[in-house]
Fold EF-hand domain-containing protein.
Amino acid sequence: MAYNRSANPDELPRFAEPDRKGPSGSRYEQEAPPPRREPSPRQSYSRDPRRLSPTHHNSGYGHMSPPPVNAGPRPTAHNRPPAVSRPPPSPSPESGADPTLLPLFRAVDKDGTGQLSEKELSAALVNGDWSFFDPQTVRMMIRMFDSDRSGTIGFQEFCGLWSFLASWRTLFDRFDADHSGNISLDEFSNALVAFRYRLSPGFVSLIFRTYDKRNEGVMSFDLFVQSCISLKRMTDVFKKYDEDRDGYITLSFEDFLTEILKQLK
């Protein structure tokens, strides 16, 4: 069984990507209770405005409020996680612009066009250890937040992207149990349990190895985000064909190829 059939089956698919308005009603998309707000540290940015890395400090280049952090015990592979383990709701690309991010945006916008190209964004987005984002993660971010399909990221789209990464950073830190700045296989397995996936250890290991693109035995922040969103999308494809929700589907060869090609765009 690739996904949970409980009353609230997979929290990650509902919250992993920017909110899209549309009809609902599927048993897989029940309304979640509002998160409990608690005080949390201010969000700051890298002191180098040319490189963007959401990290928690008391000072830095620019400030914004981070998403609320839900308290609760860390999930383990042996215990069903509490409801507060769900990822925080992510902002939509159309969310309001944050003026405090304008200096960052201008610093990254090297050619002064008011739009960030893939090359400019790639040169700016970094992990906590200052390693650059994987190119596939950068392209994924652009596709998700390029609401006008221009192939670039404008300031308002950038604000949505930045808040989205800040939300994921909070989630990443929650599962980084040893505070190493990376996600190990055990930590990744715990994250999938918290997202209500029921997958065999062998398959979890396969996913982990697939996205451990640097062959370091760990996942950096960008690859953790990429793997979780990719798993969410594959789950959505499967659920589209699993009309009776029994965990099995019948798919023609062309339908299969079509869905694979869509994932490669």
Observations:
- The chain has nine helices and three strands.
- Residues 155-175 form the longest helix (21 residues).
- The mean pLDDT is 74.
- The CA atoms of residues 231 and 254 lie 21 Å apart.
